[in-house]
Each structure stands twice: as structure tokens, then as C-alpha cells.
From TrEMBL, chains A, B, C, D, E, F:
Assigned keywords, A-Z: Isomerase
Active-site residues, as the UniProt record annotates them: P2 (proton acceptor)
Native source species: Domibacillus epiphyticus
GO terms for MF: isomerase activity
Protein's UniProt name: Tautomerase
Domain of life assignment: Bacteria
UniProt xrefs under SUPFAM superfamilies: Tautomerase/MIF (SSF55331)
Length: 65, 65, 65, 65, 65, 65
């Protein structure tokens, strides 16, 4: 505890995720005073065509740029 | 706000998702009186062998039809 | 199918949620061509002190306004 | 109802998932006294490089073994 | 691993939940051959006015019965 | 993007959550090189009787200690 889910656009590298796991675990340890062994982190990678905001699908937004 | 997650069997096209993002965002704007720019939608695509109902895995249900 | 989760700040009335369920179900029926009886919607109500954005907890943002 | 999400490392076979759907549905029927037709189960398969625990990304843990 | 979320209408007692945790953990152990200490279960209790199906909010369905 | 959900036992104070939002947002900015304004964090507070691990409901574990 806690269990942390990070929903992000696909494309982040394992190294970036590794770095974030280290930093996030340290942040939780500091803020919530819990042991590092109790922090679980799950990444959920989202494709552009599975992400909608401002009434539009993100993959279509690229076309407009 | 709000953040909407749509968990659906894989196979919906980007066009169908784009259409739903438009309709859903308009629905939220009407019902919740929030600005379109505050509505975020995430699609989660599920394989048949990752979906169970009525005590059976959906991918096995096809065999029985 | 689909299963839809709407994460929103607490305070929306049952009437607003009822209205959104109607509109959302109709939107899914149109966009995904699925039967109304297959659409499930879950609301998750979030307190201001459980929502962080732009590096700040939302409940603290009010103080600054 | 209920709606059950099982987040697990990728690699479980359809047969294992089918077996778990049967057992889980029976367990819910026993414990919650609900009809089997009301139990929905979703599997979410996670890659090793999307799972962090104890301050480390799981895919890097293999290298240390 | 795995991490299991059970979304259910509020009202189940701690004893019912305790019984389901025991049965579910045993089911996962059998089906996925994982150690009991690796199974985590989270209950999410939903109010009737936060659950919509078949185009209607569940709390309004009671009125129609 | 990203959208981060933190599922934790209830009891953390708004100040602790505020501190974690600051640290987590900074961590994401560093690791993923994204702007602070794009990071959203949701806390989900869990009661002891809604959390099961090692085949037991957490609220019952206290009794055994």
C-alpha cells in the first residue's frame, strides 16, 4: 500500500519508467511514511486512438497540426 | 473533469471511437454543465479471452454457438 | 459491454447522473451499434482533497482564488 | 454485479483464465449470494516493464537474479 | 500479483467480504499457481445512484418495481 | 497526461496528499519530460474492511495482532 496506476500515452521507454518508479517510490516514502517494499506501481500505456479530449480523438488531432 | 474510461471488446474502429468521443463529450456538457475542454475519455480494448461472464470465458462462448 | 466509469468531483445530483446515463447509453448505441441493455455505467465521486492537478491539491486551489 | 478486474503479469493461458472465471464466479455466488449471470470478470495483462515494486521496475529485477 | 478489484453495490457485510477474500485467494492459487501472499483484493462499494444500466440509473429502477 | 491513481488505506491527511501531489508531479516532470499542467492525480481511499491480502481481510488482521 499504496497501489499506484500511471495511465500514459504509449512510447515511454523502460528506462524512463524505471526512473519514475524510483522517484515515485521515494516520494511516497517521504509523504506517506511507508516502507518502499509496500509501494506497487502499474503502467497503462494508451494508444493515441484510444485517448479523447476536448471532444476529439487524439490521433485525429495530429492531422490538424 | 470528468475522466471517463470505456472498457470495450477490441475491434471498434477509430472512426467509431471518434464518433463516441464527440457524442459523449456533448452528453457530459449537457448533463453536467461542464466545458468540453474538461472532458477526458480513455478507451480500454479487451480481447475475448480476457473477458468472463456467466461463469465462462467469452472466447469459449463462441465455440458453443 | 461496454463498461463505462465516470470519475467526477462529488456534488452531481442523482437527476444529473440519470440524465447522463440516458444520453451516454444512447451515444454508445449510436456509435458502437450495441443494445442499450449491454451498457453499464459506474460513477466514482471524488472529493476536492483527493484530486491533484498542476502540482497542487484541488482543495488548496480554492484558498488561492 | 459484481464487476471484477484481475490485473496480472502477462503469460497466463486462456485455459488458466477460463478455470479462474469458473472458480471466481462460484466463489462470488457462495459469498455474496448472487446469480452467476450477474458476475463479470475482466483480465488486464501487464508486461514486466510496466510493473514496479520495491522501488524497481520488475523487468530489471530479472537481470539481478 | 494478481491485484483484484471487486466493484459491487454497497451493503455486503465484512463477513461476506472476508469469506470472498478466502475463496478468491484459494481460486487464484489453484488456477494461476501463485502463492497466497501474492494475492491482493480491493473492494469498491457503489451506491445505487452511482450505477447505471439499460439506460437508467439503478436507484430509479427501484421506484418502477 | 499522465493520469495517476493512488489507491491507499484511508487516513492520510490533506497535507500528506498535498505533499505527495507536489513530489509526484515533479517526479513525472523529471522522468517523462512533461509539463506540470498535464499531470492529474486521483486518490482512492480504502477502508480496512475493503482490503484483502494473504487470504484475509485487513480489518480482521488487526484482531490477530
Amino acid at each position: 500500500m499504496p497501489f499506484i496506476t500511471v495511465k500514459v500515452l504509449e512510447g515511454k521507454t523502460p528506462e524512463q519508467k524505471r526512473d519514475l518508479v524510483k522517484r515515485m517510490t521515494a516520494a511516497v516514502k517521504e509523504s506517506f511514511d511507508v516502507d518502499e517494499n509496500k509501494v506497487f506501481i502499474f503502467f497503462e500505456n494508451m494508444k493515441k486512438e484510444d485517448y479523447g479530449k476536448h471532444g476529439e480523438l487524439y490521433s485525429y488531432m495530429d492531422d490538424k497540426k
